[in-house]
Each structure stands twice: as C-alpha cells, then as structure tokens.
Amino acid sequence: MKIVAKPIEMICWFDTNQGIHPIRFRISLDDGSNKVINVEKVITRELEKLAGNTMWVFDCQSNIDGFKKQYQLKYELSTCKWILFKI
Amino acid sequence: MSRIIFHIDVNSAYLSWEAVYRLQHGSQIDLREIPSIVGGDQEKRHGIVLAKSIPAKKYNILTGESVHSALQKCPNLVMVPPNYERYVNASNAMISILNQYSPHIQRYSIDEAFMDYSNMENHFLDAAYEIKDRIKNELGFTVNIGIGPNKLLAKMASDFKKPDKVHTLFSYEIEEKMWPLPVEELFMVGSRTKSKLNGRGIYTIGQLAKLDRDYIYSWLKKPGLLIWNYANGIENSEVKKGSVPVKSVGNSTTTAFDVETAAEAHKVLLAISEMVGMRIRDLNSCGSVVSVGLKNDHFFHYSHQKKLDIPTSSTNTIYKTAKMLFDEMWNGEPLRNISISLSELSSNDFFQLSLLQKYDKRDEILDRTIDKLRFKYGYNSVIRSCFLHSGISPIIGGVMMEEEYPMMSSRL
Q: Given an 8 Å threshold on Cβ–Cβ distance, is A51 in contact with B89?
C-alpha cells in the first residue's frame, strides 16, 4: 500500500457502543470525476494517538474495478474528517 | 527513605510533535530526519528558531537565533510554522500516560515533567523503559528520562545523551557522570555566571563542587550557594502537583512593521491590554503594578512601571496606566516590540479602595460581560471600533489557548 492521504466524503454508522462502521465513500479523482466505493469488509480497527491527536484507523477491503484491494481509512476525531490514507 | 524522581523530557519537542502530526496526516517526509526547524513567520518579523531537528544541529543552528541566520547556515533548511494547540495535545497525551504510573506529577513546562516514583512495587528502571517505549509506540515521539534521588539530579540526567535514552544519576554517580561536565551545563548557571566562574579558573561542575562553601558564599552570595549545592547534588524540593502559582501576567508583541506614531502605539497597547485583562480576570486575580516595556528598531529594550493604589483587573485601567507610562518614556523612535505586564497579584475577592482614585463598579461588569461574549462567540465577536480598518489586530499577545502552561522556569 502507498500513502495517498486524500480527503473523502463518507457515509458511516455509529453503533451504541461508540463503534464506527464505514459503509461507503466518494473520492474525487485527478481527472475531476468522482468514484464511489463500498466498504465491503473492515479487517481491523485501531485507535491511534500519535502526538496526542486521536484518529480511528480502519484497514478495509473492497472490490475496485474488478480487483480485490486493501486500503486504509482514517477518521480524525477533532475535525470529523475522513481520509483515504493508504491504498 | 531515599526518593526516586523521574524527569521526562521530550526530544526536540515542538519539532518532533510537528513531525509526528505530519506523518499521521500522510506526509512522506519525517522532519526529524532532515535539517528542519520550527520557526516564526519572517514576514511578520517573528522569525526565530523555536526548535530544531538533530540534522539541523549539525549545521550549528541554535534555538533562539534568527531564521535568517539559520537559513544562511543551511540554505535547504525546511521551516515549518508553530502550532501551539497541537503541542498542548501532545503534551497532555504524554501526561496521561505518566498518570498511570504515579499520582505525583509536576508539569515543569510544556515538554518536561517530574514524576515521583518513590516506594513503588516495580523496579524504577523497568518502569522508565516501559514509559519511554510506550510514549514512543503510542504517541510516536521520543523522550529522555533522567532518574535521580532529587529533581535536580533527575533533570541533569535526562540531559546526558539524546535521544530516546534513560539515564540515572544517583549520589554515588555524581563524581563520575556530572563533575566532568562544563560548568555551564549545570542548572541555573547562565552565560554571566559562567564567565564569572571561568574568570576564576572554574570550568567544570566538579571544580565548582570542590570549592569551599564559605568562599563561594562570600563571593557570589546566595545564588552562589545555590549552584554550589546543585554542583554537589543537593536539592530537596517536592514534586509539586499542579503548576507553580502565577506571579505576574504579561503579553508582548513584535509588530509586523515599526510603530512610529503615538496613535498606533496606543492602539497596540490597547490590544495588549485586552489580552492581559482577559487573562488576569480568568485567574480571578488583580494586579497592582503595571509595567510597559519597549524595544526600538536597534533592539534596545527599556521599561517603566507604576504601582496603582487599587489593584485592578480592568482592561481600561490597565490601558490608561500603560498609555501614561508609554507617553512618559517614549521619545518618538520607531518601535518593534511592545509589552505590558501586571504583577503583585492578589485575589479579587476584596481589596482596599482609595479616596484618591476613582473606582467604578460598572467597569468590572462591562469587562465580565465582554469576556463572556468572547468566550462564547470567539475572541473577535466584540472588538473596539478604533481597530476597524487600522491594520492592528484588536487583541494581541501570546498563545491563545484556554489553558496556560508555564514556560521554562528557574524554580524547580
């Protein structure tokens, strides 16, 4: 996986145990078009506290353009921003 | 019973926090591995080096020197602006890890803390390595931990070899580990004391320690005795919970352009008074000495102060006094830095009024109302109209954050 760190638009659900479950996200590509990706499987979720800044890190897997791909999403608590961190 | 004190010191704090934050957000470069600095904005003339990376150290770049001269020493130096909110978060995260090891923690500054680890079940060395590694793994930055029988020796120990190390300095190790060091490495020995000591042939901490106690007292008086004690590893202050009580509140600003007219200077004074006033009211105290400091375009600094009859926390009173002091001492030269500070603080519960000075309760109510508005809707929700289109920001000074942290202090 390579670091891309791109901001994305996200639909997710929050359960009653403070769990966060990403469902699908939209990313704008370099050519100006948008791409919607369904998060098919969340493999791991981890709380990261680097430099005291809390982020949830999700390792996920989806079918993208016919290929099974692994990627990493990050959710920053202080700003409520989602990023596609690695793919 | 002998004590075990830890001193935890973040390695190049601002810079490593900045580096970790950037890596967390996908930066491909680790600022710690290239010549880089955290520095103020040169355009606004806040251009000094606040922190440097270890590779930058090799170019002989010093903390506190101007960004301009740092760039001359290393032209491809990477410079990043400071962000205090991030640093406070990082510092808080570190303290919350320390809290899991001991209830006695003293935050000495934003990047340093003392911890009392006496009478603990686990061995202190295991604990120190565990803390160091946890901070590295969980928070992503490295620290040095110094361990000693008191705060002074712990602090000296954490300074030995960096980064990411644990050092001990117990009484029996002083001769071997501390005495060979140059005398200026000792806590509280600054450049002036150094030259005094060097002048009499004292170059190492050991030489200072071996001097006769009476001799050093007759020569340098009480401060001399203090550093003599330190050189011998004698120090016994408690690890104080919380921070040291505030003794004065002050703010200053280096203006983006030289201030050349009295009207401009008065506006800057007013903007600083707003900040000082808000901070003093936030502490629920009043101050009775107002002092104003000026620095001219040749970096010459001078100041005046005045004692008030009634301790005050009112922005208007601070401003009026500051303005009067300013008018008394300013001779019309261009200014680059202006500061105001309020000292001799007392609680604002009750105070003696004076027959000679006007006191208006409404001032206090007005200030309190404005503070509440600003707290709720932001600093710039209520501003004085004189700042409109003036190019001067209506509230100036310091690091804007809810909590104040002690910067470095000379008291352990």
A: yes
Beta-strand runs (E) in B178-334: 248-259, 285-296, 301-312
- Is A50 touching B (CB cutoff 8 A)? yes
Tell me which residue in A3, A49, A83 faces B93 most closely, judged by beta carbons: A49
ipTM score of complex: 0.89
CATH class of the domain defined by B1-177:
alpha beta
Domain interval for residue A36 = 3-86
Q: Residue B174 carries which DSSP code?
A: I
* CA nearest to A81 within chain B: B25
Q: Which CATH number fits domain B248-387: 3.40.50.280, 3.30.1490.100, 3.30.420.40, 3.40.50.300?
A: 3.30.1490.100
Starting at the edge strand that comes first in sequence, how are the strands of the sheet with B335-347 ordered?
B248-259, B335-347, B285-296, B301-312
Q: What is the CATH number of domain B179-231?
A: 1.10.150.20
| DSSP β-ladder status, B301-312 and B285-296 | antiparallel
Q: Is the pLDDT of residue B88 over 80?
A: yes
Number of structural domains chain A divides into: 1
B89 touches chain A (CB under 8 A): yes
Using one digit for the tens of pLDDT, what is the confidence trace for A6-18? 999 999 999 998 8
Q: Tell if the CB–CB gap between B90 and A3 is shorter than 8 Å.
A: no
CA gap B238, B283 in Å, rounded: 24
Q: Chain B contacts of A3, Cβ < 8 Å? A: 26, 28
Per-residue pLDDT tens over the stretch A7-54: 999 999 999 988 999 999 999 988 989 999 999 999 999 999 999 999
- Domain map of chain B by residue range? 1-177, 179-231, 248-387
Q: Which of B112, B175, B176, B264 is catalytic?
A: B112
